[in-house]
Description:
With 264 residues, chain A is of the alpha/beta class. Chain A contains 11 helices and 14 strands.
Amino acid sequence: MKKLFTLFLMIFLLPVFLFASDTKSTLDQVVKSGKLRVGMSTFIPWAMQTKTGEWIGFEIDVAKRLAQDMGVKPEFIPTKWSGIIPALLTGKYDIIIGGMGITPERALKVEFSQPYDYSGMAIVANKNKTNATSLAALNNSDTIITARLGTTAANVAKKFFPNAKIKLFDDEPQAIQELLNGRATAFVSSAPLPAFLAVEHKDKLYLPIKGTFTKEPVGFAVRRGDQAFLNYLNSWITVVSAEGWLEARKSYWFESKDWEKLLN
Amino acid sequence: MVSIFRKNSFLSKFLTVAFFLILFFYIVRSVDYNWEWKRALKLFSYYENGSIYAGVLLKGLVQTILISFFSLILSFILGFLSALLRISQYYSLRAISFVYVELLRNTPLIIQIFISYFIISNIFELDGYYAAIVALSLFEGAYISEIVRGSILSISKDQWDVSLALGMNKRQTLVNIILPQAVTIMLPSLGNIAVSTVKDSSLISIISVYELTFNAQKAVSENFLSFEVWFLVAFIYVFINIIIINLLKVFEKYMEVKG
């Protein structure tokens, strides 16, 4: 009897798996369902949560505006950065709006829109561990560099400091804690977080070099083979950057710190 | 029709295996995903210029085995000690063991790992590797303590009375009479702890220890072969644990024959 039951189960399951993958443009699905599911991850000041649990930040503004222009509601789905691409591929959300740098490796798995922003890597170091004032001075076996797992900062750390020991953490706070505890020499991350940290912990941290040392284009990431959605996103980026809206938002989040009062 | 599904007939075995293969195949096919098993297998070991090299997953596996091994040994020592304290006649010793077991058993392992790494090992300047072993042994030790205590208590109280009446002291009774019987009872549960330790060791990936799960996570974040890598890693964990389970079975048989 049991075996018969297995056989029936098999027959019943076949169509479920067969029809599980129908390919229709995400664009139509989003408009039809009335909500845009956005994959993102906490990143100051790209996406942050206020005390009341509301999401704010540059990417949040971008996602909200995009959803508004599509006539739908945004739904934010916070995801660990190291798992953000797999979750997109399995359809947990429709798009990644999280300051994702366009890289050739990532582009093998997802499709990127044209860049709507540029970011760069910056570095902050612990005063008690080093007094380096150049990147080359940090590239030795005594140096421990921390970064967030899965970010381009992790790749940059490996590329710029091949002789240093690299320690990666799943979340930024752990990597920063490691630096503050004096167990790491320096922390690499997208600007302006390192600069913020240097100001916040003046007595412990300093900036070995001013500004950024890489330039990375940032785009929306969507599943592969969805040209309709990609075309829409590219048109949208062209329109909002021509308006000057992107630039205005960028300067609000990255150059002013008016938003800090929203957090506390 | 039903007769061909006779118990353990070749056909029924064949159909069962076929069912799981078909299920796996359809799951793989139904996800809109470009499978690249070859690239993923290279992460385990690869062949280049006539010699074989260990990939990141194999290197991670070695670390996972080492960490699990040392944690298990330490946790057995801790568990037995704390179980003996727990049945001691002195209140203070019982209290120490009670606090240890309840504190460690009732907090999530991930928080213990954070405390062990960011606070305790920061004070003693321990490496993440040792912080991981400390956290794992303390956690598993608390469970072993309860298993050992339970097994000792499960031996009939009459045996204590008889042994004491025969002139043995408490220690002799415990070592010669109670423990040999208790060990046979606790073995299956201790086997479960061994398997859990290997699985729980994956949690130490959060403190940047380069073990199997961390290396897998890192590889996934670099090449995005998430599905292949995680299936492969799951299989590796199953593989080590099946070896452990079978070793324990042999040991249990041996204990039974001896007992």
